[in-house]
Known about the structure:
Elements: E1 2-7, H1 11-22, E2 26-31, H2 43-57, E3 62-70, E4 78-79, H3 82-88, H4 90-98, E5 103-113, E6 117-128, E7 143-145, E8 148-149, H5 155-159, H6 163-178
Parallel strand pairs: 1-2
Antiparallel strand pairs: 3-4, 3-5, 5-6, 6-7, 7-8
Bound molecules: inosinic acid.
Amino acid sequence: MKEINFITQNxxxxxxxxxxxxxFELTINHISAPYPELQADTLEDVVRYGLAYCQxxxxxxxxxxxxxxxxxxxxxxxxxxxxxxHRTVGNRGLVKLVGEGVPARFESIIGSCYHDFRLFRxxxxxxxxxxxxxxxxxxxxxxxxxxxxxxxMMIDEKNAISHRSEAAELFLKWASTVI
Length: 179
Ligand code: IMP
């Protein structure tokens, strides 16, 4: 089976991509290594910077992924600053800051480095709620989509609708044709 090298330190993201890649008869090879996350205004800029950095340190081909939670009433905040917000105020702090029931969306960008750099984007709409469920990671328990939080979903259920799954589907379709 053909392998995709995924550079990330997030095991939960690897598990989600592994489940997705199976559908395409591809496997994920986890490269657990850090790379700097540029503090930029868009996820695309963060990913392009990450790709350029990793290209100097790791042999191609590989992929990276960056995601964020965007709240329209806060002009998209925390967006590319999601890690910082999660690290500092946490889920409870974010619910307090944003308010319960407020619409939000997750976005994911997968960046691939094969012959050149390519970006694949996915998103999912939902709303911020008080924490429910223990599955997943990060903001999963406070992000509700059609009545259930991501924290209440198994990987395959989250993968049926998630931002990362949409980006992964586009990447994996493309990868199936070129590798
Ligand atoms: P990262 O920079 O892509 O790792 O993610 C930014 C922040 O958003 C981190 O705090 C993650 O925990 C959180 N995050 C990213 N993707 C997801 C997701 O699918 N579910 C819940 N939280 C997420």
